[in-house]
Amino acid sequence: MGSVVIKDVYKAYGQVEVIKGISLDINDGEFITLVGPSGCGKSTLLRMISGLEDISYGEIVINNRVVNNIQPKDRDIAMVFQSYALYPHMTVAENMGFAMQLKKIDKAQIKAAVQEAADILGLTPLLQRYPKQLSGGQRQRVAMGRAIVRKPQVFLFDEPLSNLDAKLRVQMRGEIKQLHRRLGITTVYVTHDQIEAMTLADRIVVMNKGVVEQVGTPRELFDYPCNRFVGNFIGSPAMNFIEGELIKENENAFFITGNGSKLPLKDGANLSAYPKVLYGIRPEHLRLSKDDGVKAEVTITEDTGSEIVVLAECCGEKITLLLRERVELSPGDIISVEPVPGASHFFDAQTKERIFN
Ligand code: ADP
Ligand code: MG
To answer: Residue 292: pLDDT above 80?
Structure first.
């Protein structure tokens, strides 16, 4: 069974601490993504799970066995990197079977395992080719094939799609997800791309500066980000934030911005007044309003055909709206904007932590 338990793990390079006390329970068969900005410690954590990096403090348990002092090759894991790291002088079949060959496994058995993985990944016609005769996507598939052949308890992926172009990335993302469905192998997948993290994961771990900010399903993180960092990181275009105050007048709630504009919150009856809030609203949860709402001045519009991204100045702040209806807007136009009921987020202006659910 491929469960992974990370218990209060730290990592320091000399004096510099880069992982600052991470604990995480990964269930057997689960697909977990580690996401966060570059340099936050994702690869370091993954490499500690794999055994390529020592653990400074804490414990990592794979399959109920503490692996701190166990060699990578004995951990029952297989890792796929961004650089495919294929041997150029070996064919696809040889690359895929190499780990088994090192273990002196019987030739017929290797052949069968390679064939099975090749079938799963659609690599059968390419088995006799060399890496230089393959496209980027095919090479990445071979790297995955090599991991599958080892029949690991846990797959570890470190940004495996970053070298591919955008279309191929989307295609390979789908293939990785299908592969997980089919094989059911516990997977820990590192990416800096929040869309990739959201689309693949059962649960996402949002990391920042060596700590975990929040763990949850894609929906949980999107609907209930626990703080400003997660609110900003998850979702594209990013959430809008405006500082101000939450007041109540006769059971109606209003958000008063720093420059005094008053934004009615139609569903705000259950909110309590709060003196200093950071108001968060996603671009797709802002809409044009006929009557009330607040005024904003359009600065730029970006029309993608399926939607229009509108950048505007509102209450002295820059905001973004994502509109699905086809409106004609030009820079300088004054629009009236209101939040979709139920879609507002409130964070404490000081601590940046979420205050209402
Ligand atoms: P991520 O994968 O999230 O981009 P990394 O885990 O690669 O981040 O790195 C986390 C931090 O640790 C970074 O600040 C990086 O500079 C530092 N770091 C990584 N490897 C080493 C190393 N071998 N020696 C010193 N610092 C390192
Ligand atoms: Mg990395």
So the answer is: no
